[in-house]
Design a protein that fits this description.
Blueprint: H1 2-13, E1 27-38, E2 52-66, E3 69-83, E4 89-96, H2 103-106, E5 122-131, E6 134-139, E7 199-206, E8 210-217, E9 227-236, E10 239-248, E11 254-262, E12 266-275, E13 292-303, E14 308-319, E15 327-337, E16 342-352, E17 375-386, E18 391-403, E19 409-422
Length: about 425
């Protein structure tokens, strides 16, 4: 049972693979996708007046292992539809693009890119393995991680992608629609301050017992030096612990701790993140622009006799500024293997944003008695047909109800397909 849970969890969570990140082994994967629906927009936005077809997107991924080297990359290319003011389809625009089918229900003009459904239009990584267990990597998306964090359940170009942390945004209350996103620095090749995953990294892994790594992220300067660090220890089968820091040397750095407990019948993941941002250089600067900290956990449950896997998760965000309330979300992924060829799955979540207590203080210049933290409800069922060992087809539907802090409500949706070829 324990092995079955581990295998299913590994497939479901898309955990880090040996050497590289795009594919688990030498090969090529191509995903052709298309979608249509009603996009999220602002009030009186003509884009929201009727159904839109968004076009086609092709995502090509490849990995090559040659001797002691690994080279991997991705290119996202689109034939995107263009509508005139009268909302009638006019033409296609062919371009290298950051847009994905998932972008349309989750796009918003404010907030962090982690929850907007964008993905880089391309990336290229080079990894050198001079000796066993030691890697030197350089690339635009290395994705080296040491521990668990709120799941994205796949990259945004994959059929099982979904909104992160219940759709909460990376901002202070009143600066975005529903806020409370916390960054967890478990990926030590990312740099939160620069919103980038491009980096130069080195890591050493001793069997499955130890991983230690450092990275120099793109964007740092000699005037503002920084580097990232990650450590994972797996002393026994049932227990793994990890720590990491993003932006060491800078007062805006972020700390992370995570653990995994493999308790035979289920797997428990938990995480803690401290986002030390603000105008001061103290751990928790008490300013309106200060950072935040968050914690959360997820449980993976597998029922192999009926082919069902569940992964519920919960997370909380606490702002360092005393006038801001906390934000939280609950969500989960469901997978049901109906047969060897057909799988029914779904992600659903609801997030409640933070608010500013001054909104309810009638002596405050920020007095807005009807404002609150807002909420986001999202549900995304999908159905996958594994046509053969090389081809699969996924059909999805994504519905989102978003109530902003100012009580504006949007109901948006998208539907479409992913056709994936692997070899």
């Amino acid at each position: 049972m324990k092995k079955i849970v581990g295998v299913i969890a590994g497939l479901l969570l898309c955990t880090a693979v040996s050497f590289a990140q795009v594919l688990p082994a030498n090969g090529v994967q191509n995903t052709l996708s298309a979608s249509f629906g009603l996009p999220l927009g602002v009030a009186n936005d003509p884009d929201r007046e009727q159904l839109r077809f968004y076009g086609f997107i092709d995502t090509l991924q490849a990995r090559f292992d040659i001797s002691k080297f690994t080279v991997e990359g991705m290119l996202n290319w689109g034939a995107l539809s263009w509508n005139e003011v009268d909302q009638k389809f006019n033409t296609f625009t062919f371009a290298n693009t950051e847009i994905t089918p998932y972008w349309y229900t989750n796009h918003w003009r404010q907030g962090g890119w982690w929850t907007n459904g964008n993905t880089p239009s391309y990336y290229v990584n080079f990894v050198f393995h001079p000796i066993e267990g030691f890697d030197l990597g350089m690339g635009t998306r290395l994705d080296w991680s040491v521990g668990p964090a709120p799941s994205s359940l796949g990259h945004f170009w994959e059929p099982i992608a979904h909104i992160v942390q219940g759709g909460l945004k990376d901002a202070a209350p009143g600066d975005a629609d529903v806020v409370g996103f916390t960054y967890y620095a478990n990926n030590y090749t990312s740099w939160y301050a620069g919103n980038t995953r491009a980096s130069l990294g080195a890591r050493y892994r001793y069997k499955d017992l130890l991983e230690i790594g450092v990275a120099l992220p793109s964007g740092v300067t000699v005037n503002a030096p920084a580097f990232n660090f990650g450590l994972k220890i797996h002393p026994v089968d049932a227990f793994t612990i990890a720590v990491a820091c993003d932006g060491i040397i800078q007062y805006t750095s972020n700390l992370y701790a995570g653990l995994t407990l493999d308790l035979n019948m289920f797997i428990l993941d938990a995480w803690l993140g401290l986002n030390m941002r603000g105008d001061g250089n103290t751990l928790f600067p008490n300013t309106a622009n200060a950072g935040r900290w968050g914690t959360g956990a997820a449980i993976t449950l597998a029922f192999p006799k009926v082919g069902i896997t569940l992964r519920p998760e919960v997370g909380f965000t606490f702002y360092n500024y005393s006038d801001y309330t906390n934000a939280w979300y609950v969500g989960g992924r469901f997978n049901w293997d109906l047969t060897k060829e057909f799988t029914l799955g779904a992600w659903s979540s609801i997030g409640f944003g933070a608010e500013n207590r001054q909104w309810h203080n009638d002596q405050s210049v920020n007095y807005h008695p009807s404002w609150n933290g807002g909420s986001v409800f999202d549900i995304r069922p999908d159905f996958t047909w594994k046509i053969n060992k090389n081809h699969s087809l996924t059909i999805f539907f994504d519905f989102q109800n978003r109530k902003t802090y100012a009580n504006t409500v949007y109901d948006v949706w998208a539907s479409g397909f992913y056709w994936t070829f692997k070899r």
